[in-house]
Amino acid sequence: MRSRLLGRERTVTLALAGAFVLTALACALTIPSERAFSIGFTVLLIAIYAVGSQIEFEIGPGSAVPTELVLVPMLFVLPPGAVPLCVAAGLVLGGLVERLRSRRHGERITMLFSSAWHSVGPALVIGLLAPGSPRWEDVPVYLLALLAQVAFDASTVLVRHRVGRGVAVRELVSPLAWVMLVDCALAPVALVVAFVAADAPLSVVCVLPLAGLLHLLGAERRRRIDERLLLGQAVQDAEKEARLDPLTGVGNRLAWQEAVRQGERRLAEDGVGSTVVLVDLNRLKETNDTHGHDVGDRLIQALAAQLSRAVRDADTLARIGGDEFAILTTGAGKRGYAELASRVRSELAGLAVGDVPVLASLGAAACPPCASLAEAIRLADERLYAEKTAQRLTATASGP
Length: 400
What we know:
The protein is of the alpha+beta class. It has 2 domains: 231 residues, Orthogonal Bundle (Arp2/3 complex 21 kDa subunit ARPC3); 145 residues, Reverse transcriptase/Diguanylate cyclase domain (Alpha-Beta Plaits). It is 64% helix and 9% strand. The chain contains 14 helices and 8 strands. The strands form 3 sheets. A 4-stranded antiparallel β-sheet has the order 4-5-3-8, with helices on both faces. β1 and β2 form a beta hairpin. α2 packs across α4 and α7 runs antiparallel to α8. It is elongated. 36% of the residues are buried.
């Protein structure tokens, strides 16, 4: 709420706000009323409405405010035509309080005028069809006023969010339904207050304890939601950490096993194969014995970093043993695993930690042509061992 209104949202909001001001002035000037207009009492109602507008509680996929408790009595203790202007004044007063608390950008206060459109419908219905004191026989008219309120509110929201912000209509239906439910639930209570307030106007302040209770319930609900979000995030972080190798930051054996199971499901359910590349760091024990375990760890880290460059974000890279890494990628086939293996070899070419080269053996396979992912892993392991043996024999033959 601290950001400025931009682009189409700003144009639509200003248009709605301007149209509301003109409509509210027209209502105040043209809807007849014999009720006395007290400036002091009107200011009190505006202040109560401002308080109600700051009580926001989350419900369903959105949030609602209990201003229905104040709007309905307003329609019966003030001239109905003046109610839209008083509602707008209450919303702006509440917005100014938010502004002082640095929770709302000053320009967004204009949006509050467009939010006051919901008061126009009931003001027109009550002012034209039932302008006197509240009567039980006029309940059908009051129901019509509630429907008018819902219609004006929904229309304004649709215009502001659909036209101004490009939000899909289906995303607005559920929040609007919940707001309508809250208004319908509070309307009977507010109507009873209106019956009493018709003879004792100051009784309107009786809505404040109920509004305060809703505020406490809303704050408690938000606290619980925040706690659940924090707990959920903590669980996600713990699950992610449980699948990471602490030395290299890539996946560990648990992450690899889960990726293999998922690959098997994809193959069985959708016929989508996978490519496997196994990489083994050569001469790690010799390096540890000659240069120390710190250098050996740095070799492992350097190998993991280079392998990370060779894989895509969607691929799984895991350290499945002390000096062994595994890559699993979806799809490909014989040609694909050959390309991946070539890319891995290219990344590892010339890699060294200081004057100690990072030497690695590699084995790759895919299903298909292998009948299963387990068979591809076995074949890749056989090819890895064969390459490792060949490199050892070559090193032995070229030695002193």
